[in-house]
Structure formats: structure tokens, C-alpha cells
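Proteins fold reproducibly. Next comes a concrete instance:

***
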Amino acid sequence: MPSAYGVDRCAVCGDRIRWTTTARGLMLAVDADPDPTGNQACYTDDTGRLRSRGLSAERPVVEHSELLYRPHVASGHTPRRSGSVPRRNTGVRPQPWRPR
């Protein structure tokens, strides 16, 4: 069973989630507890970061120390990174570039 280290709360629903880094370097929220019906194989890399990969036709099962997790968006919520605030588009609109 994974430890409670790295567990966060979803900003939308308050459920327990973990943030993983995908192979493309994007952040993905997964439910905090492993789920055998999930489709994300997650593992901790050498630096302690939780990494994830989707199960594919080439690698359809978990390998070595991976555990299956369910993406949090599959529960119908769209989580935001905790502490983040939606960005407002304010300021000066840039002018088209013109040579001098």
C-alpha cells in the first residue's frame, strides 16, 4: 500500500488525489489509492517523482514495481493544480511588430 506522502486534495471535489508526471512531461491527477480497474501504470522514479504511463497494446500489463491507478478525470471532475487561480487576461494588447 502506498504511503500518504504526495497525497493532495482535488480543488473541485475535495477527493484525495496524487499528481503524476506522464511520459510527455504533463501533470496528471490520479485517485490517491491504487485501483485494479485503472488504466494508468504508476511508479516512483529514482528522484522520488511519481511517474505514469497509459496501458497500450505494446505494454498492456503492469511491470516491476508499477501499480494501477485510475485517472481522477474519469470520476467526472476536472481538477486544477492545488493553490492555482484561474488566470485573467488583463493588460495591454501588444501592437503588431513594425520595422523602424
In short: The longest strand covers residues 16-21. The chain has a mean pLDDT of 80. The chain has no helices and six strands.
